[in-house]
Amino acid sequence: MSKERLYLFDTTLRDGAQTTGIDFSVEEKRRIAAVLDDLGVDYVEGGFPGANATDTRLFENPPALETARLTAFGMVKRAGRSVSNDSGFQAVMAAKCPAICLVAKAWDYHVRVALGISNDENLAAIAQSVEAIVASGREAMIDCEHFFDGYKGNAAYALAVARTAYEAGARWVVLCDTNGGTLPHEFEHIIADVTKVVPGSHLGIHTHNDTENAVANSLMAVRAGVRQIQGTLNGIGERCGNANLTSIIPTLLLKSEFADRFETGVTPARLRQLTHASRILDEILNRNPDRHAPYVGESAFATKAGIHASAILKDPQTYEHVAPESVGNRRRLLVSKQGGKSSILAAMEKLGIPVDRDEAVLVRVLDEVKSREAAGYSYEAAEASFELLARRMLGEVPRYFSVDSFRVMVERRHNAKGDLVTVAEAIVKVSIDGADEPIWSVGEGNGPVNALDRALRKDLGRFQKHIENVELVDYKVRILTGGTEAVTRVLVESLDTVTGERWFTVGVSPNIIDASFEALLDAINYKLMKDAARVVEQAVGRAV
Amino acid sequence: MSKERLYLFDTTLRDGAQTTGIDFSVEEKRRIAAVLDDLGVDYVEGGFPGANATDTRLFENPPALETARLTAFGMVKRAGRSVSNDSGFQAVMAAKCPAICLVAKAWDYHVRVALGISNDENLAAIAQSVEAIVASGREAMIDCEHFFDGYKGNAAYALAVARTAYEAGARWVVLCDTNGGTLPHEFEHIIADVTKVVPGSHLGIHTHNDTENAVANSLMAVRAGVRQIQGTLNGIGERCGNANLTSIIPTLLLKSEFADRFETGVTPARLRQLTHASRILDEILNRNPDRHAPYVGESAFATKAGIHASAILKDPQTYEHVAPESVGNRRRLLVSKQGGKSSILAAMEKLGIPVDRDEAVLVRVLDEVKSREAAGYSYEAAEASFELLARRMLGEVPRYFSVDSFRVMVERRHNAKGDLVTVAEAIVKVSIDGADEPIWSVGEGNGPVNALDRALRKDLGRFQKHIENVELVDYKVRILTGGTEAVTRVLVESLDTVTGERWFTVGVSPNIIDASFEALLDAINYKLMKDAARVVEQAVGRAV
């Protein structure tokens, strides 16, 4: 049986750009458009030309996309003006792209209050705008704003808007739940009514996440007959965000209820890039990825419950609703006090450390992890520290260097101008394994940890070249008040700016500087250990 | 028409505790339980007694809850053992609480593979476990693990598990979508089948967010007949999280499709605490609140689109699906100052500072708070700092003392025995208002902040007696990476060991020591301000 085609319309660069705190540059828009094109979406809405300089520039010199159609967003022309006399409309028409999507009012209340025109004037403006786009040889779409509230207020008028757009030649008539207030069970009967005036093969759905139902609403709309889905990568968007394509796409491809009936431009092979696409967007936005994001989150296939962990090893499929590899993600069995031997075993196997279930080293690592966790350590978010610990216990990690002493000073004082300023300074004394003389390094920073980090990474002698591209990108502090004395747990995220690899390390001490120091040392040692392993691999490769 | 009752079952402290990186202390569990009780949920699942020391201690000395029923989680007793011979089961039975929820396998495949027992042995174990709980005079619940996958694999057996639990006396039989793979449209027909063996008034739903449909799935289940909903605050939980009660509760209360038919323990008045409850959990977890969270997020009612913003001013209701105040949140118009004035006014009124809505000081405080929030401050959890700020702007707070300079040093070195030790030392120079000579104080501590705190509180001259009983009891650090430069926000909790009063203060700086210093200063100044007010009150009291 041949499958029906579903169309994916991405508005990350337009509606997603409405997110509080997001401000894409032209270059960033180009990069994201390329990622979306690679992923296989059908439409990439790039922005609103004429509304701001970034979007105007993007559409003057549009990115070359392989299969996705670049789409410009705009507003239906003003009533009482011809299309050629409306400068806003003409700015959109000037965009160099094969498709244009215009927003139109579908709620008669807003036609009256916000536009101040008659219902018929609004319909005429919609029809003339669509006709102008079609006449220019391009694909026309109409976003029916507040469609569902409009339908509840005046169904006949909301339907008239949809029909007018369709009859004027719009390829897609998109039903927008603009304020995100519609609930999943409402879509079926409303859309059934809409399909009486516009065929489902010409209907799109655009939802917002204000009740946390944007994904479900989109899926329900597809079941009710619409064939185009609008959304954004990672669900970014105004207020609570738009429908999250990163969650919708895998459901369409991997869940038989949809996969058996429909196909999209995202093939199974492209789907394996989904996690990567999601992370790239976060990278561009300089955000920490949501660890708990469905399908693509770092923890989406992670488990720390002991009862589950041992069973997952027996048969992962019954515990995972889809295979993590299908979306380019991976399974994680977390090392924690709730898990037991089997999760340590699984963690070690994942690291490529071959150990038997009953081997003594496994018991020793488990005991060490348990006693460290009792002292405040937590390895579930610090896999690099765990790997270092395990490999050290196996005798695989040499001591590259040691820090004999350090001193950190923070001083607040009046400067020459009489202003109160605070300065931070650190001195470390490092002994490199095999070298005769210790190295003294001094670092200044905007705080004590920053100063210590700089001093520590200033000069590691012959190891320096390995850490040249390592950056501390995140630093988290938690005070644990479990026992009698409070201890500080520090989690450090490091980034290799060349390879893009990230790793997490942990340090614990009653003293925050000590705890930070330990996590920083682990971060450096992890990098040196990994580089050493790579050298061995290459040497073996050459020998073979 | 009388409404049907829906029951809310919160598992933040049990399933939520499975979240990667979350590790509640007993004290934190108590605090969260109190927040949930205040909010009006029906059940608070506190943890798994016997599985770890934290949960065992919690249930040995349970928190006193007003209306919510504290619930212990456990596993159905092992097959082939009597309930009294199963030590794990007995550890759960030993919990001091009025309700117990046991997880049971509902998928025959897992009965065989994970438990290695027969289908009938599993049913017998479930019945005997429920009977034992009922015989102890408590409410029994069964979580049917993997119910939906089980139903798809062997419907008759999944239904037999549900019926067995119900017939043995379980108050609630909870259908769990354990791996989160079930889609919204599947609930109606499956639950219709379940209600043939267990009445909907005894059915619960427990969903996970692996396809981003946990909220929709819970709502669909209610429409299909279940009357208990399990979920967590902020949707925390293993992998992608549990059903988010913070989104579900307002939908049940504010959307007519549910509000007209159902009522819950959360009244409209309690619903206004929802945003606060959500933020408190983040505070305890030391997480940045999700700005885009439905209903309670900082941006949930924010808009930056010019076209929308001006229209919202005309008529907010048609642009907002619910009123932000109904969940204790607020509208944010990024083009206008309207948003914050009423909340600042409310905060000042709460402190007993009488100001008119239009008074100039209100605008000045609002401006100051806004500019400080832009710099990284947050007064949501630092009311003492807010009160100090507001009263200072009203000219009510004199300068008691000032710190002209400080120096903090942390040193790691070998001690006389040759061990590596780290010492922290701080020196502060304090000028007391009205005194001629500055006071130098030195403090040692287990970390730089501790040393600084001790030095600062060692000698405040004539104010010393006021701070003698003040202790720093909690200290939280968060790195904010909003702007170009990362800043550190420190939150300090202080305790008067005599009166038991606690207060929270905040400090922000790129330098963690500076930020800590600011919060410590606020903590001391707050105490001096409060004591001064008490002196005035007492004097007035004597005069009358």
UniProtKB/TrEMBL annotation, chains A, B:
Known catalytic reactions: pyruvate + acetyl-CoA + H2O = (3R)-citramalate + CoA + H(+)
Any GO molecular function: 2-isopropylmalate synthase activity
Record SUPFAM superfamilies: 2-isopropylmalate synthase LeuA, allosteric (dimerisation) domain, Aldolase
Record organism: Hyphomicrobium sulfonivorans
Main EC class the enzyme belongs to: transferase
A biological process term (GO) from this entry: isoleucine biosynthetic process
InterPro entries: 2-isopropylmalate_synth_dimer, AIPM/Hcit_synth_CS, Aldolase_TIM, Citramal_synthase, LeuA/HCS_post-cat, LeuA_allosteric_dom_sf, PYR_CT
Keyword vocabulary terms for this entry: Acyltransferase, Amino-acid biosynthesis, Branched-chain amino acid biosynthesis, Isoleucine biosynthesis, Transferase
Gene3D superfamilies with a match to the protein in the record: 1.10.238.260, 3.30.160.270, Aldolase class I
NCBIfam families listed in its UniProt record: citramal_synth
EC number: 2.3.3.21
Protein's UniProt name: Citramalate synthase
Pathway connected to this protein: Amino-acid biosynthesis; L-isoleucine biosynthesis; 2-oxobutanoate from pyruvate: step 1/3
Similarity comment: family membership: Belongs to the alpha-IPM synthase/homocitrate synthase family.
